[in-house]
Design brief:
The protein is mostly beta strands and about 120 residues long. It has strands at about 5, 10-15, 20-25, 35-40, 45-50, 60, 70-75, 80-85, 90-100, 105, 110-115. Strands 2, 4, 5, 6, 9, 10 and 11 form a seven-stranded mixed β-sheet that branches. A four-stranded antiparallel β-sheet has the order 1-3-8-7, with no helix packed on it.
C-alpha cells in the first residue's frame, strides 16, 4: 500500500520561503516520478512540479518557474518542494502524488498560506 505524507506547510509573508516535504512508503521510491500539486477550495487541483525517478529531470508549471525547486532524496524516500519568493496567489493546499501500477496516490496535503 503506497502512502504519502506531506509536511512543512504554514503561514508566511509574501516574499518568504517554505520547504515542503513528502515522505513515501509502500513502493520502490526511486523508480517512480513524484509530483507536487496544489488546490484552492472550489477550484481544480493544479500541477506545480514533477521530478522523474530515473533521471531526476524536473518539470514546473509556468506560474512557479524560477521560484520553486523540486528535489528528491531516494535514500530517505522523500521529495521536497523549496518555495521561494512566495506570493499570496501561492496560497493553497499542497499535495504530493505518484502513480504506481496505473493507480494515482495522493497524500492528505499541507496548507500553505501567504499573507500580503
Amino acid at each position: 500500500q503506497v502512502q504519502l505524507a506531506e509536511s512543512g506547510g504554514g503561514l508566511v509573508q509574501a516574499g518568504g520561503s517554505l520547504r515542503l516535504s513528502c515522505t513515501a512508503s509502500g513502493h520502490t521510491f526511486s523508480w517512480y516520478d513524484m509530483g507536487w500539486y496544489r488546490q484552492i477550495p472550489g477550484k481544480e487541483r493544479e500541477f506545480v512540479a514533477d521530478i522523474s525517478g530515473s533521471s531526476g529531470r524536473t518539470y514546473y508549471a509556468d506560474s512557479v518557474k524560477g521560484r520553486f525547486t523540486i528535489s528528491r532524496d531516494n535514500a530517505k524516500n522523500t521529495v521536497y518542494l523549496q518555495m521561494n519568493s512566495l506570493k499570496p496567489e501561492d496560497t493553497a493546499s499542497y499535495y504530493c502524488s505518484c502513480t504506481v501500477g496505473g493507480n494515482a496516490y495522493w497524500g492528505r496535503g499541507t496548507q500553505v498560506t501567504v499573507s500580503s
